[in-house]
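Possible regression after last week's pipeline update?

I re-ran a chain I had predicted before the update to compare outputs. Posting the input and the new output here so someone can diff against the archived version. Not blocking, just want to make sure nothing changed silently.
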Amino acid sequence: MEKLFAGARLRQLREDRSMSQSALARLLGISPSYVNQLEHNARPLTLPVLLRLTEHFGVDAEFFAPQDIARLVADVREVFADDTVTGAVSALQVDELTTKLPEVARTLVTLHQRYREAVENITALVAEQGLDRTSVRQPHEEVRDWFYRRHNHVAELDEPAERLAAELRLRPGQVRAGLIAGLLERHRVRVVEEPLGSDQHRFDRRTRTLRLSPTLRPGQSAFRLASELALLEAGEVIEGLVRGGGFSEETAHRLARIGLANYFAGALVLPYRVFLGAAERHRYDITRLSEEFGVGFETICHRLSTLQRKGTRGVPFSFVRVDRAGNISKRQSATGFHFSRVGGSCPLWIVYEAFSAPGRILTQIAELPDGKQYFWLARTVTRAAGGHGDPGKSFAIGLGCELRHAKRLVYSDGLALGAGAAITGIGMGCKVCERPACPQRAFPAIGKPLRVQEHVSSLLPYPPEA
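New output (post-update):
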């Protein structure tokens, strides 16, 4: 068992129950000074103490796990890497802040996000863009961050969707027919196919008619049916989650409803236990899962990133979708992997290389500057154009997990994962990356002095000061 320092969590547990350190010590059968040392991370939690804590307080052992700290450290480091924030804070000070005062660190990150939004607002106004809302990106970012904080798992929707799938007797390969029957029997909704221009589906509440575009593949059609069924079946739950989500405006509310309806749809088409069982059986072979459940590569990857139900967790994945220009249009994470908001993502990341080998699954062992290692796989997906001359859509889908989980994936077969592994050092974006000798750097690191000499040249685009 690795040393587990969980002082902040232990203090939170004690204070939530209005207990003194002496009272907690008596309950655990240890000395008050030992409790004090545990809460100040002077000593690690031992297995016997951890077991007594879970027994007496009824919490899962994962309550004390440091899985959130890696992401929080990355978020806080990005705050102080912002070139508009003055003051030098060392990596050691950031680690101490996030470990000892995680709630203060989270508040700092939230304040910085709002500060960045305010800067964007001012920039937009100065540029006379005629914006009549708070920020161009804010609603989408709010919704993404909400899912990110939940590790991309919404139990309030996942479990009802699984029960509904059982009630409708949905079977892989026959989901579309089952959903059509369920809409008609439970909600008197009739499904028809007809051309809808650029729309994929439309639901008319007045006539109780759901129109589907005939251009949709069976898996896409099933997903659209399921998303409307989500709003009919779980509308109150979705509305409650939206109201409690702290979203700032109506646009964000609507996007959150759509995102939650789509989450329910994914959980309905790919029920948790059935899908997790198949994923483990096939060792997370995405192609085989796609064939078995009749949905696309992207849908399978996105669902894999949500399998974090307590007691029956799958591999904790990060999921990302990017375009050729490097824009990240989807990003969710159940791991400590951090997606940068400053200066773009790392060009050495395998997700971008996928565009050079369309349709092939590429793999990479990537290491972040903090030493954490991840196993990534990536593949392109293409969506056909409407007709000749119409532009299609092409994305790269990335799915990653911590390297320690890689053996559970079929894609790691034949690869060296230990001492002989081929590891690629990547960063969270050039402006915040701590790798001074990277030849692919697009921007100098914020706050780091450069070596600029008139009579000396370097292979490095932004050589650091010695």
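Follow-up from reviewer: compared with the archived run. The radius of gyration is 24 Å. Marking as no regression found.
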